[in-house]
């Protein structure tokens, strides 16, 4: 019980610092893509920041595993965290560090009870749009047949892809770019489903609340009607008694 409490305390105290590191990762990931002519020292600094952020999330997973009362159960229930931690070790690609960091941030966000579903969905949409745009720009900008050359083109492509509109004016031409497109489309469909389900649940809860209120009012009216009938009967009896006297 003490170990479990220690794990919960660790997760509570590290929630905000890890999100701050995630924001630092976002800046470090974006700078070399938005500014391809940046100094080499700046690019190397961004790379170091990316690895430091990933290492922080890996350390967080290790501490949570050490504090877990049942480590095998923790690994089984947090397999996505483990995969995200191990992913960048197989191939030192910036895109893998991006995917792993997004997965880890998403896992910690779902664990935070104070974050509402709507806030999480909005944050996920903004994050996917931003990182999807940067990722596709990084792999398509130097493609001989690519037509996504600027950040504006990348953002427009990400928006149309996530909403499954797909105008076709911009499209990835590389294999990695198409893999990003598939991931972005699936993510857009999933988020749209979450939003739709959330709105439907709100309407259902609203209708149920209205039904409960309507039933309560109907019951109150019925009880009031019975009381009026009882009063009328008592008045009739009282009137009959007075007439006899």
TrEMBL record:
Compartments, record wording: Membrane
What biological-process terms (Gene Ontology) are attached? monoatomic ion transmembrane transport
* Annotated source species: Streptomyces tibetensis
Q: What is this protein called?
A: Potassium channel family protein
What is the membrane topology listed in the Swiss-Prot or TrEMBL record? Multi-pass membrane protein
Q: Which UniProt keywords apply?
A: Coiled coil, Ion channel, Ion transport, Membrane, Transmembrane, Transmembrane helix, Transport
Coiled coil where? Answer: 214-241
In what residue span(s) does the Potassium channel domain sit? 131-203
Q: What is its main location?
A: membrane
Q: Which domain of life is it from?
A: Bacteria
Q: Which residues cross the membrane?
A: 18-35, 42-63, 117-137, 179-205
* KW Membrane (keyword) present: yes
Q: Which Pfam families match?
A: Ion_trans_2
């Amino acid at each position: 019980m003490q170990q479990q409490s220690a794990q919960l305390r660790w997760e509570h105290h590290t929630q905000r610092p890890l999100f701050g590191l995630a924001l630092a990762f976002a800046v470090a990931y974006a700078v070399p893509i938005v500014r391809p002519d940046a100094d080499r020292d700046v690019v190397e600094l961004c790379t170091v920041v990316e690895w430091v952020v990933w290492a922080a999330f890996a350390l967080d997973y290790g501490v949570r595993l050490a504090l877990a009362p049942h480590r095998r159960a923790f690994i089984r229930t947090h397999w996505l965290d483990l995969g995200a931690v191990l992913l960048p070790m197989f191939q030192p690609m910036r895109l893998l560090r991006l995917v792993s960091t997004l997965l880890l941030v998403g896992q910690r966000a779902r664990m935070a009870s104070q974050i509402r579903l709507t806030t999480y969905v909005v944050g996920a949409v903004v994050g996917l749009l931003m990182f999807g745009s940067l990722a596709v720009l990084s792999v398509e900008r130097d493609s001989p047949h690519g037509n996504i050359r600027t950040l504006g083109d990348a953002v427009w492509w990400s928006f149309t892809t996530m909403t499954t509109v797909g105008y076709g004016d911009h499209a990835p031409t590389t294999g990695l770019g198409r893999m990003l497109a598939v991931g972005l489309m699936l993510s857009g469909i999933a988020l749209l489903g979450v939003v739709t389900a959330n709105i439907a649940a709100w309407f259902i809860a609203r209708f149920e609340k209205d039904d409960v209120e309507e039933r309560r009012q109907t019951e109150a009216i019925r009880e009031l009607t019975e009381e009026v009938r009882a009063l009328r009967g008592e008045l009739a009896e009282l009137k009959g008694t007075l007439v006899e006297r």
